[in-house]
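Support reply, case 0932

Customer input (verbatim):
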Amino acid sequence: MLLIVGAVVVLGCVLIGFLMGGGHLLLLWHPTEALIICGSALGAFLISNPLKVVKSAVAGIVALPKGPRYKREDYVMLLKLLHDVLQKIRKAGLLGIEADVERPGESALFKKYASILADHHLMEFITDCLRLMAGGNMNPHELESLLEYELETHHREAHEPAHAVQKVADALPGFGIVAAVLGIVNTMASLAGADTATIGANVAGALVGTFLGILVSYGFVGPIASAMESRATEEGKAFEIVKMALVASVRGYPPTVAIEFARKLLFADVRPSFGDLESHLKAKAAA
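Our regenerated output:
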């Protein structure tokens, strides 16, 4: 919602300010300038990025109006799942969850958390971590180091679409200049026999290209890239709390304490309080 509101505010303030200064909206209507700028930017985007980044960028932009992928209740659900996993490890040992890890879709442990089970990337990370714990014979420092490398790779890949869109934003003013220069070329070519009013209109049209390039860059594409980057950072928290809980467990902390370590990593707006999470865990244990 804020994405749409922000775009309306940017466009509304620019156009209203232009009208208040005595301008006319039709003076900004130059489809050829928009075609040159937006088409060139799209072509440069396709040239500079592999297909997977292009697809991820499109999917990321489409997902922005929907809000954050993980909400407070999703993090509570994830913490409850991790608590159940660690409790089962504590009672049955790491070999006791081998069947759950190998076939999570058939596991009674994971099937209780359908929303997390449906998240392919997060479930893959959880099960891979548990396999390492069960068969890797690693000490806590080795496990933590390996998971840090994996998270670093995940975060870099998750931020690639935002960086690609930001590069488009950086290039748009340049494409605006290209459109303006082409407009000036046409103006210079039509000087013979043209009156002052015609020349002025042609120059104004050329300058619209520069205006559009800067406006689209700093008013829309750049902020979209920033929003995508923030979303990727927020989504990475789910993976970080999985790592923290499992590493804390390997270090010998009981499940409740390991989950508390993980809870501390969450941002304040989505982090359940200690008492709230404890009540959720107790309610589940009673059930």
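We compared this against your earlier run and they match. Two observations from our side: The chain has one domain: 31-286. The first helix runs from residue 2 to 20. Please reopen the case if you see a mismatch on your end.
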